[in-house]
Amino acid sequence: MLALRKTAPAPGLSLDEVPEPGRPGPGEVLIEVAAAGICGSDVHVYEWTGSYEFMRRRLPVILGHEFCGRIAAVGPDVPGLAQGDLVSAIPTIGCMKCAACAGGFAQRCESRRTIGLTSDGAFARFVRVPWLACIPLREGTDPVLGALMEPLCVGDNAAEVGAVTHGDTVLVLGPGTIGQAIARAAAWRGATTVVVAGLNDGARLQTARQIGATHTLDLAHTPDLASAFLAATGNRMADVVFEATGHPASISQGLSVLRKDGILVTAGIHAQPASIDLTALVRNRQQIRGAHASQRRGWEVMARRLYETPEAVRPFVSLVMGLDQAIEGFEQSKARGVSKVVLQPGLAMEAA
């Protein structure tokens, strides 16, 4: 089968013919991938930027952790799932033996692995995963939208970490997929004002407006974030600020418009440390919280939302391409001229 792999600790990816995963073992299912999204993390791996050295000893690895598909085969000891079921999958897999896993917190597992980063993922026709990772999607769910499950759940988890509630004024720094997902989640949770800021990000800011932002700011045209934000909100400071840029300077920028007792949630992956004024943070009684990945209960809620309100998230998807066009999709994602690029392995097969 054709697969998009990271084969060396250097910039670039490789489209290779590789063996299919084979029959699933005990507790596993084999999924025929219907759609898989290119994540910002995938782009970082493509460029081989900082913070992804942990992958080095796992290479080569097939990328792709945002996906959905139909179960092609079921291994022994798999309850509740059957061939033909439409599913997405939580990419973080715990050891299922430690106290963290027993408590339902695979993210805390010291032996966890991640589909598409430290074990083979979904940029291929088939991917084999533990059945416990699977989240059933309702029949009739658009598979392309099913590939949005992971980033939408990451955004919703960040909104939960930030305790967004009805009437809040929210600022999201960074209009990438996670920033857009946070804006959508904040709107779902009742925020009255949702401002999304970017830098030379016209296309992605337009998407942010389509999926729930009440205001957008392009800091290339309004470089003073504080003045532009307060003008948009009628001089109201932010109750919650989300940093989804990965640029350390965004932390201080966000704190400059955060009200006293407010919460700043950082969801970006930073290659460099950030510098902040801790005295101001203490005197303003502000909090900084980290948000990463998601929790299973959020996936179950999102599966229902995708089925019931698909048009609320459809603007996320800019391009749908065959797997054989993956490198072009990565280049477009890297250039920030699109929001989400979704790859469909079946398109390449049909064209062939």
UniProtKB/TrEMBL annotation:
Pfam families: ADH_N, ADH_zinc_N
Keyword Zinc attributed: yes
Needed cofactors: Zn(2+)
Domain Enoyl reductase (ER): 12-343
Keyword Glycoprotein: no
Source species, domain of life: Bacteria
InterPro entries: ADH-like_C, ADH-like_N, ADH_Zn_CS, ER, GroES-like_sf, NAD(P)-bd_dom_sf, Zn_alcohol_dh
SUPFAM superfamilies the record matches: GroES-like (SSF50129), NAD(P)-binding Rossmann-fold domains (SSF51735)
SMART domains: PKS_ER (SM00829)
Alphabetically ordered keywords of this record: Metal-binding, Oxidoreductase, Zinc
Sequence segments annotated as region (Disordered): 1-22
Family: Belongs to the zinc-containing alcohol dehydrogenase family.
Descriptive protein name: Alcohol dehydrogenase catalytic domain-containing protein
Species name: Comamonas endophytica
